[in-house]
Amino acid sequence: MSNATPLSPGSRFRAALVAEKPLQIAGAINAYAALLAQRAGFRALYLSGAGVANHSYGIPDIGDTTLADVVIDVRRIARRVDLPLLVDIDTGWGDATAAVREIAAAGAAAVHLEDQVPAKLCGHLAGKQIVSTADMVARVHAAVAGKPDPAFVVMARTDAAAGEGIAAAIARAQAYVAAGADMIFAEALPTLADYKSFTAALSVPVLANLTEFGQTPYFTIEEMRAAGISLVLYPLSASRAAAASSLAVYQAIRKDGTQQNVVGQMQTRAELYAILGYTAATAKSPKPAGKH
Questions:
Q1: Closest CA relative to residue 110, chosen from 231, 244, 192, 226
Q2: 187 part of the active site
Q3: Whole-model pTM above 0.85?
């Protein structure tokens, strides 16, 4: 029997980064999505601020969700899946120290904090407004002060490339690293050359966000590796596919008056139970059979 101390979430995130280069990070909007990503073989997960706003609250990602809203989803995912979880904390809700402490206490391994103004926009939309470098440096200092242990990851995201250019965005990223950021999230870069410029200028891991329908092309893992990228993020790929499929099923049932024509598109009960570990769970805590 081993008496080794379990690795902290931050340590597990860093270990995943060593084990897989670049590390593919799967977006998961809830605990069940996290189980599916785990089944697919991902080593790390991501909870998107847009995912919380869009899917948990049914609202646009324009900064209206709170720290408490995000903590609920972090806790649910971290309790169910052991994979390290990177969490979007937007601009820190006015107190990045408290935000990091609460997100970490809920079970997260890492956070990313951005340099937009508090009334933020999706990183791939036009019209983003950026705070000064000094203001973002202060946010990074505050976030680092909330770390529960040195291994916990504070990642600084810069949205400056779209409005200020690559050179200015890199200068900002360097300032954020000097302030204590463990990694850099380079948002909405359009070319591999831009990513190569970032990674060449920085001594810390750089994340590329390969979200769909945005400013960044669908680069391959091989292309990202060649550009020196350490982490590749797919924040809402599965949830977008699930939403499209769900709407099609709703429309078919409404039109046909039966689900018979779309049953083939559905996950079976057996598949659901296998992913949930239903048999093992009921063996531990027998309950009367119910209708599901």
A1: 231
A2: yes
A3: yes
